[in-house]
Design a protein that fits this description.
alpha/beta; FAD/NAD(P)-binding domain; 5-stranded parallel beta sheet; 9 helices; 25% helix
Length: 446
């Protein structure tokens, strides 16, 4: 029997386990599956950990989640096609749930299945080697609880470890003498830590806008956001401003490209993450920028240099959970012989064409449509439940317009339509800026 290794039990790894579980429920004989998960529980980023630096086993903390995070995109764009929010919660809920609510939803689809018995928790994948003459992978892992190591052979490997765990950390002159705290968003855990402080945030990504908003909400004195190319351009509250790029720092003073300067208590680096897979050798390791079409992946999932290896969820993301599903169903059908891969030349050309098409996109709305079309392409080749991609795109469009109108109130809005069951989201019962409790009990109350 074919034996398959899945690395990671976050949303992508769980999507892969769910895909095989569905096939098994439909009467198919599935391969033997082992999933290795570094944390003590499934859920990936949505399984919050207070730890930073090193974990209880002495390994690098993988998780980048922080307290008080609410979804920064509409749930209508990430909903599972085969398990809706309404099915899980028994009613329509607002469009931007906090982490605990989304974690509960992710678990709801799988907690009554047998997939947990296929996962080895507290297990770090240390090394993956491909043995060419035998056409198999040797996967070496270490269990953090027993402090024991083993090597197991597999026919295929699926990398589902995500790409939001290894921070991209730039250096600026004077960092070593800054008389405050410098941290990357990866180590940010609680906005309350920065109350009554003047903060400098570097970056214009989602983490920059969200951490800026969080710190404002929980009482920082001010936030200055420095950008290298262009400001985010939102209508920020008066104690948040955007400035050109940071040049250097000296003690507590930061100097910017426009000649201005200011004093700060802390610097938060929202400077993105690297696709980094230390457990893989060069010939198996994905090396790509964070973009909609990754390098060297046929259909965005098959490793062209060795099609026995697969990657899930490695794209820059508008779509998330349901895109991971579409990818997982596709990989499952390749592994079970339902989909035949084309010749090598066609596979190598595929990501090149996708990147050329991506480079021609004119704005974020075109990028959303592009990724929606990609999800639809994969769904069309499998039995994953079809859903209204146009409706999901529209939810993203409405979200972007609401953010542009007011970055601090977009989560208060209702009226988005589920692409799965056409239910309409209500407005949240409390304005986001005033809702300091992010627990599911608080969020779900009538």
């Amino acid at each position: 029997m074919t034996k398959i290794c899945i690395i990671g039990a976050g949303p992508s790894g769980l999507a892969q386990l769910r895909a095989f579980e569905q096939a098994e429920n439909n009467g198919a004989e599935i391969p033997e599956i082992v999933c290795y998960e570094k944390q003590e529980n499934w859920g990936g980023l949505w399984n919050f950990s207070w730890r930073t630096g090193t974990d209880q086993a002495g390994d690098t903390v993988h998780n980048s989640m922080y307290r008080y995070l609410w979804s920064n995109g509409p749930k209508e764009g990430l909903e599972f096609a085969d398990y809706t929010f309404q099915e899980h919660f028994g009613k329509s809920i607002a469009s931007y749930p906090p982490r605990e609510v989304l974690f509960d939803y992710i678990q709801g689809r799988i907690k009554n299945t047998n997939v947990r018995e296929k996962i080895e928790f507290d297990t770090l994948v240390r090394d993956v080697k491909y043995i060419e003459d035998r056409k198999i992978f040797a996967v070496t892992t270490r269990n953090g609880k027993t402090d024991s190591e083993k090597t197991v052979e597999f026919d295929n490997v699926i990398v589902a470890s995500g790409h939001f765990s290894t921070p991209n950390v730039p250096y600026y002159e004077g960092f070593e003498i800054f008389n405050g705290r410098i941290l990357h968003a990866h180590d940010f855990r609680d906005a309350r830590e920065f109350s009554d402080m003047d903060l400098l945030v570097l970056g214009t990504s989602y983490s920059a806008e969200d951490i800026t908003s969080q710190c404002w909400k929980y009482g920082c004195r001010s936030v200055t956001v420095a950008h290298r190319t262009a400001p985010m351009g939102f209508g920020w509250p008066e104690n948040i401003k955007e400035v050109p790029a940071l040049v250097k720092v000296n003690e507590r003073t930061a100097f910017f490209k426009d000649g201005s300067s200011a004093e700060f208590d802390a610097i938060i680096l929202c400077t993105g993450y690297k696709h980094h897979f230390s457990f893989l050798p060069d010939d198996l390791r994905l090396k790509t920028a964070n973009r909609l079409a990754c390098n060297d992946l046929y259909k965005g999932v098959v490793w062209n240099n060795n099609p026995k290896l697969f990657y899930l969820g490695m794209q820059d993301q508008w779509y998330t959970f349901n895109m991971f599903d579409a990818q997982a169903w596709y990989v499952r059908d390749v592994l079970m012989g339902q989909i035949q891969l084309p010749d090598q030349k066609t596979m190598d050309r595929d990501p090149v064409i996708r990147q050329e098409n991506e480079d021609a996109l004119e704005d974020d709305y075109a990028c959303i449509r592009y990724q929606g079309a990609y999800v639809q392409e994969l769904i069309n080749e499998t039995d994953y439940e079809n859903f209204n991609i146009d409706a999901a795109n529209e939810a993203f469009f409405q979200w972007k317009k609401a953010k542009k109108k007011n970055i601090m109130t977009f989560r208060d809005q209702g009226g988005l339509i589920s692409p799965m069951d056409e239910s309409i989201s209500p407005p949240h019962h409390t304005e986001w800026k005033d809702e300091l409790d992010d627990t599911m009990a608080s969020y779900m109350k009538n």
